[in-house]
Design a protein that fits this description.
- This protein is an alpha/beta fold and about 300 residues long.
- The protein has two domains: about 140 residues, 3-Layer(aba) Sandwich (Rossmann fold), CATH 3.40.50; about 160 residues, Rossmann fold (3-Layer(aba) Sandwich), CATH 3.40.50.
- The chain contains twelve helices and nine strands.
- It is globular.
- The protein starts with 11 loop residues before the first helix and ends with a helix.
- Bound molecules: phosphoric acid mono(formamide)ester and norvaline.
- Norvaline binds next to helix 6.
- The site of phosphoric acid mono(formamide)ester has 8 residues, from helix 2.
Amino acid sequence: MRHFLTLRDFSKEEILEMIALGQKIKAQTKKKQYVPYMEHQTLAMIFEKNSTRTRVSFETGIYQLGGVGLFLSSNDIQLGRGEPMRDTARVISRMVDMVMIRTYSQSKLDEFAAYSKVPVINGLTDEYHPVQLMADYLTMLESGKGDNPVCAYIGDGNNMAHSWLMLASKLGFELRIATPKGYECDASIIADAMEFAKESGAKITISNDPAEAVIDADVVTTDTWVSMGQEDEKEKRVAAFSGYIVDDAMMQRAKKDAIFLHCLPAYRGYEVSESVLEAHAETVFTEAENRLHAQKGVMVWLDQNR
Ligand code: CP
Ligand code: NVA
């Protein structure tokens, strides 16, 4: 049995298998062919943080696969009153077929997975957001940017940046990350990505220079400067990230046909300008829709690899 906790746990071939499954299921869904790959199965969805996309895409996704989703906010279950993660895992995993969790530290997710009898999916932690990257890569493929793209991530060295590091280093494409000083990616995650890159041929560069990082990029991406749980740091962060907005001037340095990706929610006037977000709205909202399809690929793959 496999869990989907970070992309580091998967080979390039496995990631591409899941993406291909997602593409196949997307095509079927578009033709209203709802193939019951996971008939009668239940997906428990535990949320310790807010969500729009993750909640709706997983709940709709499991339904389209013939199963049912259980939305469990930590405020409503005993986890929120202090029942340990490991006991929650031992109870829930005896009743359901798969679990998705959105939580704070990766170690809480790892603890759940260690005690779970069923596959566990990371629906975002402070360290990683791997399901988002599956949707992002599907969107890149559909936009003709799947083949050896040069990607530039501008902004916070957070869960999204870490997940881009894992995707690029596993699949073998070029990734340039530019963050302000003091907001760099975790050094050990960079080191791991560099190790994976030796095998895959990925070129990874880390800098504090966004203008340089976007030159001739095929894909430009960013994320909020204030992630969930960092609300108290907003003022300090907004000051530190000055110069990191992806605006028209920044996009003009990328390739003419470059795409812009954003996991959403977007904060216009901070990490991205209104004009860039609206100019690339079709891609960005396809990216959001692709959460639904890419995650069906992940769920079916995990089910088939029990
Ligand atoms: N991108 C993303 O995960 O969105 P939500 O926080 O709305 O789930
Ligand atoms: N980095 C953001 C991603 C939201 C989908 C956060 O963790 O809040």
